[in-house]
Amino acid sequence: MTPGTATSVLLHTGWTVQAVPGPALPDHVPRGPLPATVPGTVHLDLLSQGLIPDPYQGLNELEVQWVGQTAWLYTLDFEVTPDLLAAPRLDLCLDGLDTLCTVTLNGRELLRSDTMFVPWRLDVRPCVRPGSNTLSLRFDPVLPHGHALEAEHGRRAVWNGDPSRVYVRKAQYHYGWDWGPTLLTAGPWKDVRLHAYDLRLDDVRTALTVADDLKTATLAVDVSVAGPPAADDRVEVTLTAPDGRVVGHTVLPAQDARATLDVPAPELWWPRGYGAQPLYRAAVRLRRGDTVLDSVERRLGARHLRLAQEPVAGEPGTSFTFVVNGVPVFAGGANWIPEDLLLNRVTPDQYRDRLQQAADGHMVMIRVWGGGIYEHDAFYDACDELGLLVWQDFLFACGMYPAHPAFLDSVRHEARAAVTRLRHHPCMALWCGNNEDYQIAESVGASGPGGDPSTFDALAIYEHLLPQVVQALNPEVPYWPGSPSGGGSSHDQTVGDRHTWEVWHGVMAPHRDYGRYEGRFVSEFGLQSPSSLHNIGSYTRPEDRRPHSRVFEHHNKASDPRGRPDGPRRLAVYLSDAFQPATSFEEYVYHSRLVQADAMVSAYRAYRGRWGQDGARAVSGALVWQLNDCWPVTSWAIIDSSGVPKPAYYSIQRELAPLAVQAVRSGDALRAWVVSSEQQAQAAEVRLDVYTLGGEPVHSRRVELEVAANAVTPLDVGDVTLHAGHVAFVRVFVAAQERSRAVLWPEPVKHHDHPEPALWARLQGRHLSVGTTLPARGVWIDAGDRRVSDNHLDLLPGEHVSVILSGDTDPADVRVRAVGSRPVGAGDQRGR
């Protein structure tokens, strides 16, 4: 290595792992070392070597629980070269250890870590030697450790998983959740490396802030250096505009590297659908003469963001509105859970793919839920590029967490690491203290009206420690203590954010009642459905493909607060409210998914329809629970674990369109409005067409209107009576192009005789044409694992559409159906 320059050596090859003998270890598992993949976890190694079955198939989850009850020893023999030893400093960097790990180098214990979320940097110069060295990482099972802490400090209330999880800083969903299995992973899940250096950049803050008038921006740079710098060591900072022009440059003494750079006329970064996402590039280099000792490069966005909590005209309480570059944003979007329990299988391309789906669905915000992980850099990079605002929970979920000194110290270390890593991303819109911990505190009398806060230890975390960390390290991003929180209780509809679970959980209200349970910002709501038939086929045998088979129900983890399974029962209630009993498993899956899609229409119309206008933002966001799945399962997700969207995805995509017409039935009357997120008012035409289910025209009307910018515009269609068997199509046109449609069908489906709509479908290459003779509801194109450019369609009598499949497909593998229709093949010409 060149004198003075830093060298980083990845320690990723040559590892072995072996089980430490214990009572849970099965006889078939070798007692000796096995090849190991680093970064990784032991489940992946056992799976790749055929020592455990795929835990996502059938009932195999139950067969692999011994893995998480066993201690595992990772070992690596590696060489230390003279060049590495010649460096003044040599560190072992362990970027992520899952979770209880004892680190030993050449027989010397260096660390005992009890957290999955903190990167470690250890000075190993005193214990390395020239040539061969041995590094050992022993991972002990988390359950005995958690139970010991529980015995010492007391058992605490939780929803989901073993109660001892609240004492352990491990991804909480690994303990099992109401949408995921229990897999207690262990291993070095992030990079392991040696870092040899003279000096290095220790902490680099690059905060690009925009003035209130949006005309100027300032880059604040604050750099600390590890290792005593020489008098002539320098830090060079260069800011490059999105088009490659250098717009700022300074050279600072390494001993006190702080400066601000002015950026006139900044190119603003906008949320998806509101403008472009130009990214500046900040390069920070630590120099000694002509030698670069260390460097950091970051992409930055120039954006002005605030969380407005202001009066709502004519209503109690305050708004909860994200305002970006002076523009109020209706934050339609989704909640994010980790993409897998075996996290090392998730690639940057997979992150990008899933987030691109969110962006294509007209989503503006993604909430990273507090029971998972601080996601991979690739997640936040993609959000920066796609214009997706990120609501980031700290990692506390559905539990009464402790606050004894050792726990607080660990949380402080974790929070500082997370905020420092993520604070430069323009996508970051909110730091939030926890998920539903105020709710569970209310349930045990420790919070809310009449609660005893002296028994709510974790207030020290959510209302003191975390906001202090955010204020010190990332004051540009607002902090919120918990989701939901803000009002007199977590169910307050007039202040803060709210989780609306009266539909599905709670009183199991009909989904058309979503509007009764609104909040100023609805950060969770949802309704379950099965995954695609293709996805179901990945974990079942043919004999398992029944609505209530053991395997199919095992892949529905929904439960009541006491942990008793209740997902299939609740799903059956919502299904029976809408449909006659299904005559086949395929029809059961189709009906269940249609109910979820209808529920999402109800929710987004209720919430986005209350976006209002400036000074009257009654509801400012709606985040569906949930965007994605971590394994093949019946859940609230709108995209299944194979990446195939459900019908609900397309419903949400339409309701969140930049210009969307929305309509609801009110008895026999029709009420409608147009909601826009576009920044210019525009002339539009609304067309209302009413038919019988048999396709006979009943009523037609055309209405001209001016659609207000970034607001809801009421729509007067006159006195229209919708009789029980009528279907109303409401469409909005701009410059003679249809921009949106809302369709009101007779409800419930089970009380109306939907005639066979005479669907037809024809596939040519990847282009599929689909048409109908009669009004067709919920036209679903099933193409296996292929995605469809548009789906879950409501078609006018005689209408046909063309869509594109994501890959070549045999026409025999494409099936199309609608309410009242049997499945139609892609070569079927009926109705033409």
UniProtKB/TrEMBL annotation:
Sequence similarity: Belongs to the glycosyl hydrolase 2 family. Beta-mannosidase B subfamily.
Transmembrane regions: none
Thylakoid in keyword set: no
Protein's name in the database: Beta-mannosidase B
Domain Glycoside hydrolase family 2 immunoglobulin-like beta-sandwich residue range list: 200-303
One Pfam family, short name: Glyco_hydro_2
Matching PANTHER family: BETA-MANNOSIDASE
EC number: 3.2.1.25
Highest taxon of the lineage: Bacteria
Domain Mannosidase Ig/CBM-like as annotated: residue spans: 670-751
Pathway: Glycan metabolism; N-glycan degradation
Record's keyword terms, sorted: Glycosidase, Hydrolase
Enzyme's top EC category: hydrolase
Compositionally skewed regions (Basic and acidic residues) per UniProt: 541-567
Domain Beta-mannosidase-like galactose-binding: 33-190
Catalysed reactions, semicolon-separated: Hydrolysis of terminal, non-reducing beta-D-mannose residues in beta-D-mannosides
Residues covered by region (Disordered): 533-567
